[in-house]
Amino acid sequence: TQSRSLGATKGCELDVRWNSLAMRVTCLATCALNQWALDFEGNLARVKSSISIAKRRGARYRVGPELELPGYGCEDHFLELDTTEHSWECLAGLLNGDETDEIVCDVGMPVIHGGVRYNCRVFVLNRKILLIRPKLCLANDGNYRETRWFTAWPHQKKVEDHQLPPAIVAVTGQSYVPFGDAALEFLDASLGSETCEELFTPAAPHIQMALSGVEVISNGSGSHHQLRKLNTRMDLIRSATGKCGGVYMYANQRGCDGGRLYYDGCACIAVNGEIVAQGEQFAIQEVEVVIANVDLDAVVGFRGAFQSMAVQASAGDKYPMIHVPFRLCPNDNVSRTPHSPCDIRYHSPQEEIALGPACWLWDYLRRSGASGYLLPLSGGADSSSTAAIVGSMCQLATAAAVSGDEVAVADVRRIAQIDENDPLPCAKELAHLLFQTVYLGSENSSAATRSRSSALAAEIGASHLDVRIDTVVAAVVAFFTSVTQKTPKFRVDGGSNVENLALQNIQARIRMVLSFVLAQLMPWVRGRGGFLLVLGSANVDEGLRGYMTKYDCSSADINPIGGISKGDIRSFLRWAADRLGYPTLAEVEEAPPTAELEPIRDDYVQTDEEDMGMTYEELGVYGRLRKISRLGPVEMFKRLLHEWRDRASPTEIAAKVKSFFYYYSCNRHKMTTLTPSYHAENYSPEDNRFDLRPFLYNVRWPFQFRKIDQLAGGGAAE
After folding, report:
1. Contact 115, 151 (CB under 8 A)
2. For position 549, what pLDDT does the model report?
3. C-alpha distances in angstroms, 588 versus 285, 353, 458, 554, 617?
4. What is the 3-state secondary structure (H, E, C) of 353-390?
């Protein structure tokens, strides 16, 4: 076992730790920070603010999110030397002040050691660096590509010397500091750390740390929101100390740091398998610090009750310890009562949809320089849910401003263009200032959707336009006729499928063009400055099936519901009608989904599910099997043969599976231009980084479909 000392006399450590009759109670702080990729100045300010809050509340240790100085979402900017150098400069700025006086701070940043770039935790105290701990296991699936930018530290329980850059040497006077997989040994306690993904690995570092007697284990994370995911994370956090005891501290980013992900905070502290402090999962607030008083003697007592753990601990190799002459448990801790276990707060999926995308939209709006959003509001389920999320955003922003959040106050005034002396707006007033909705009706639109669109806009407070696009559509059709001397017809009027689809696409694409025209000019019309961002509202199931016109209103600046299933959207509409105060949403949910791109006749009304040839429920099943279960056509058929045996014959199931894969593959090219969407669902077909597939398929799938037909025709029971 390696052991290093930073000015301590090792022989007296054991006596110092155990001679006191007082309980070993320490105050620990974790946090959720709304960091922004490459915003070094802002990121450092939020780090400093969190440390100051932690110190004021008596904390002796503070842990922050993963890569908090540059921001987790820098992506290929991590390959630039600038990003690492600027992170060191920020750390120098932190060490040059009094923020780290008498508090151990754990800061996330990239470090190049021996010519290799690592994702690191840097422990500092009293303007000195104690340890640089590189990440051992990198996240490299789903939305994560850490191995593209970093290398995992392969030397478990090994420590080397790291030469500090001149900017740090000038501040700390240190030339070399420990670098590697080690823990900190204080005069009265021990502390170790792991980073994000390591918590999820089978042989997580916290297990070996616990067997080495480390009492406090922290995790600086960069973990994104996904519907129904928090339960999994909280179960892992509890289990980290539920079996082998200890204190587990979890820090996370919270907000949109420049991409499709929303990092969902929920900083928390667990003791011996029980949560004792938990922060908010969704919030406008940029800095949240979560504090807990913990009894470290309770950790020793918990572990002492398991003889099998003692046997394993005595037989294993111990963690290298960096000895630090500092008390984690101050002598005056008698007045500090350890926190008791608390119930974990979970949001329902409907609440998650109302809060997560709303906070993401607010971050995007305030950081983009735009003055608001424009939404083509059709009165259907998807655009209405997007409108409701914008309404939720206005409610959250105004509530934060009224509560005294200075950043929220400044953002509301700046975006809404409100003078310093004017009163802050309520949610509906804010929506009127920054949210423009428009009903782009045609001769194929119904009075019902027009009425719902207007009513919902009024309930939210949006500035609303009701316009008809028929003259523009007619002009395009007339242009085509003048060029070709042919006039296309809808199918109900005797036209072919090609004509019918083309006439629908003309309407859809004109709506996209008009939306961007209005977004650019409506602030000018209303005597305001800036521009509006166009919101899209295609759901994840429609993206999977390709049930959208390329470059129609699904082509927008951003889409808050692009990662949400139709089933969840309809559930959200029912919930939001009451909980958000928009009763028209109940009417929207009850109406059958329709594109309203074809003429309405007494014997024909266009509906989405009839157009698609499959139900939204079936699409959700196909999507989960394709992505989450990783099933191709044949294996999907085999699975559904069992799951749907009571609802369809093998031949019918085969037809359904083949139909899905045909439309999925022939429309896959649409995913290459899909509007950046809030990531909320694990079966998202988003092509940019999450669901990497070809976009030119053999849509006939001859080998696979022939195999399905063989199984359906006689060998299905084998």
Report:
1. no
2. 86
3. 32, 17, 15, 19, 18
4. HHHHHHHHHHHHHHHHCCCEEEEECCCCHHHHHHHHHH
> Does residue 232 contact residue 297 with C-beta atoms inside 8 Å?
no
Instruction: Report how far residue 52's alpha carbon sits from residue 40's, in angstroms, rounded to the nearest whole number.
Output: 18
**Which residues, 6 or more positions from 307, have their beta carbon under 8 angstroms from its beta carbon?**
none
Name the one residue in this structure whose structure tokens are 């009165």. 379
Active site residue 157: no
**Residues β-bridged to residue 109:** 120
Sort strands 116-125 and 104-113 into parallel, antiparallel or unpaired: antiparallel
The mean-pLDDT minimum among 50-59, 145-154, 593-602 falls in 593-602
Does residue 504 have a pLDDT over 70? yes
In the set 87, 371, 378, 537, the catalytic residue is: 378
> pLDDT tier at 602 (50, 70, 90 boundaries)?
low
Give residue 451's identity as a one-letter amino acid code: S
Residue 73 corresponds to which amino acid?
G
Confidence at residue 681, expressed as pLDDT on a 0 to 100 scale: 86
Cα separation of 502 and 506, whole Å? 6
Q: How far is CA 130 from CA 85, 121, 124, in A?
A: 19, 11, 5
Residue from 137, 196, 329, 394 carrying the catalytic annotation: 196
Distance separating alpha carbons of residues 547 and 567, to the nearest angstrom: 16
Establish whether 74 is a catalytic residue.
no
> Residue 1 — pLDDT band, cuts 50, 70, 90?
very low
Among 254-258, 329-333, 660-664, name the one with the lowest average pLDDT.
329-333
Question: Looking at 181-286, which runs of residues are DSSP E strands?
Answer: 183-185, 190-194, 216-221, 247-255, 263-264, 268-271, 274-278
Return the amino acid letter for 587.
E
Q: What is the pTM of this model?
A: 0.92
Residue pLDDT, tens place only, 421-467 = 999 999 999 999 999 999 999 998 999 999 999 999 999 999 999 99
Using 50, 70 and 90 to split pLDDT, how confident is the model at 16? very low
CB distance 277 to 246 below 8 Å? no
Residue 13 has pLDDT above 60, yes or no: no
Question: What does the alpha-carbon distance between residue 208 and residue 636 come to, in Å, rounded to a whole number?
Answer: 40
Contact assessment for residue 47 and residue 94, using Cβ atoms and an 8 Å cutoff = yes
The pLDDT of residue 542: 85
335 catalytic, yes or no? no
Catalytic residue among 13, 48, 50, 66: 66
Report the Cα–Cα distance between both ends of the chain, in Å, rounded: 57
Of residues 48, 55, 135, 566, which has the active-site annotation? 135
Tell me, yes or no, if 66 is annotated catalytic.
yes
For residues 697 and 668, the answer to whether their CB atoms sit within 8 Å is yes
